[in-house]
Amino acid sequence: MAPYLAMAGEFRVHYSGFFDPGFGHDAAGGAGSRGVLEVRCHEAPFVLEHGQVVGRLVYERMAEIPHALYGTGIKSNYQGQGLKLSKHFRAA
After folding, report:
1. DSSP of 14-35
2. In the chain, what are the domain boundaries?
3. If we measure between CA atoms, which residue out of 51, 48, 66 comes closest to residue 9?
4. Local confidence pLDDT in tens for the 92 residues of the chain
């Protein structure tokens, strides 16, 4: 995950910075997994609009085949998870 334009607003969305090998991969139990962005504002409040570009994915070739894929086989936390609010929000 890379910033679209680091100075394009009062927020940051690329805290994770990467997806582990196998995230979302069907063979690892993650068909249809979604990368969920954590968005934080800096000093000023802001509003995100539908369709607003906030980041970009950069795909890079791995230096070697991973020893294990992120997924159900290693009890990964987010594989196969749908959209949900951050743990910082309480259910209404």
Report:
1. -SS----TTTT-GGGT-TT--P
2. 1-80
3. 48
4. 666 665 656 666 666 666 778 777 777 666 767 777 777 777 777 777 888 777 777 788 889 988 888 776 787 777 777 776 666 677 66
In this structure, how many other beta carbons lie within 10 angstroms of the beta carbon of residue 30? Answer: 21
Q: Is 72 helix (H, G, I), strand (E, B) or coil?
A: helix
Q: Which of 87, 84, 68 is nearest to 29 (CA)?
A: 68
Joined tokens for residue 37: 């962005």
pLDDT on residue 54: 75
Contact call for residues 76 and 66 (beta carbons, < 8 A): no
Nearest-Å Rg of the Cα atoms of the chain is: 15
Q: How many CA atoms lie within 13 A of 72 on its CB side?
A: 10
Would you state the structure tokens that stand for residue 5, as one six-digit string?
């334009």
pLDDT of residue 63: 93
